[in-house]
Specification:
The complex is a heterodimer. Chain A is of the alpha/beta class. Chain A is 35% helix and 19% strand. The model of chain A has no long low-confidence stretch (mean pLDDT 96). By secondary structure, chain B is mostly helical. In chain B, 49% of the residues lie in helices and 0% in strands. Chain B is built from three helices and no strands. Classes of the chains: A alpha/beta, B mainly alpha.
Chain lengths: 415, 81
Amino acid sequence: MSERVVITGLGVVTALGHGEKRLLHCLLNGCSGIRPLRGLDRSLYRSRNGAQVDDAELAKALTDRQIRAQDRTVDMAMLVAADALDDAGLLPNPETPPPPQPIATVFGTASGPAQSAYRAWTAYHEKGVKGVRPTTVPRCMFNAVSAQISMRFRLAGPNYVVVASCASSTVALGIGYRMIRDGHARQVLCGGAESMFDPGYYACWDALGVMSRADNPETCFRPFDTDRDGFVLGEGAGALVLESLESARTRGARIRAELCGYGESSDAEHITRPSLDGQTTAIRAALDSAGMHPRDIGFINAHGTATKANDLCESQSIRAVFGKPADTVPAVSSKSYFGHLIGAAGAVETVVTVLCLEAGRLHANLNLDHPDPLCNLCLDSSAAGDVRAPTAMKTSFGFGGNNGVLILRKAGEEE
Amino acid sequence: MTRDHIIAKLRDIMKASSQATIEWGKVTEASTVDSLGIDSLAMLDLMYDLQQEFHIEFEPEELVAVKTVGDLATFLEQRGA
């Protein structure tokens, strides 16, 4: 018999700030976290805006949690892990370390501890072999993200990272969902973390030509708009505690939402070009997994990267699966508020989806001034509105043809 | 570089390498390295940071006799730090 899966803890940090309250406030009030690039020579790049986490706020939050900074991606993962565990009532007391808890840790990241990797290669470039720090391997290995969380919070279930480009943390959530549904775990800490604002990594994204080159930071990121010209890179992290419904009820934990379906697929076609077949397969699988019909969905938190190719293909995919209900089920992209967090995008946007379900409010499509008629979805949301049905779909589509789709339901609807 | 200067730098470097919560202001020359949360992995980082900071080179076995912060400061002084 399969277990029902609920979400009992949330943690988030983005360019909009640290914590879920600030995030929801900004989303519902149309505040953007996108600014001119900080810490980089803007004149070197064609895309000159970014959605970067405030250094001072991050440092304070880490100090408050007694987390020592080591790598920006790992640091943010540790921070949101602490927040989510705290929210779920599962945070160990640092003064009295508890015995290990049988909680799994599954995090998504596309580039892992990128700051450490950049430092390592810079040291090698400048000083040769003798410049390489002896602990470069444990600092740079991608699973440092989940391993550091596991060690710090004594989470002794399996820990690993999922690398699936922009779908990484959505897939991480899907894996966590299945672990609980199929009885392999009672609690799984899932999430994603990403930070790539060093000169090298940022140059790689800049060279790929998928980021907006418009000047105005407030308006340059325009998902589903006719004038869209790509995304703005963001950084941050999101974490969610997944738990069996039975476990949550036994503990008396506050249920934030139910995760009731997951579907995934691979395009098996092209390394960067999205595929209608791949995406529709994942969307159908998610709906089937949840036992739902498109008309059951209250809103869609779309991948919505504002690249010409993604928004068009995603719109066609949703339309192909939803049919007529796509006329009335609102679709929004959260990325124009806090940037594209790549491997962390799915986790952060799932946190957003949970917050919208809880609040009964859906944020607007920021900067959608001229909806692209080829993106034939219900995008008419110039201002925040009410959520019309207590269920939502979250899509993530990554380079490599990685497609992951989650179905969520508002807490209290799980009977 | 004065010995006090070396001790101050040592304190900063060890703080970055340590896995423990230590009151670093109370660390003295008599404090043992073992008591400062420097495990074998952290020791690798410590040696790297010492070589980078003081612009010297040495092999790990040269530190076998080092037990305290003072011993380490003396070693660095002898190597021309």
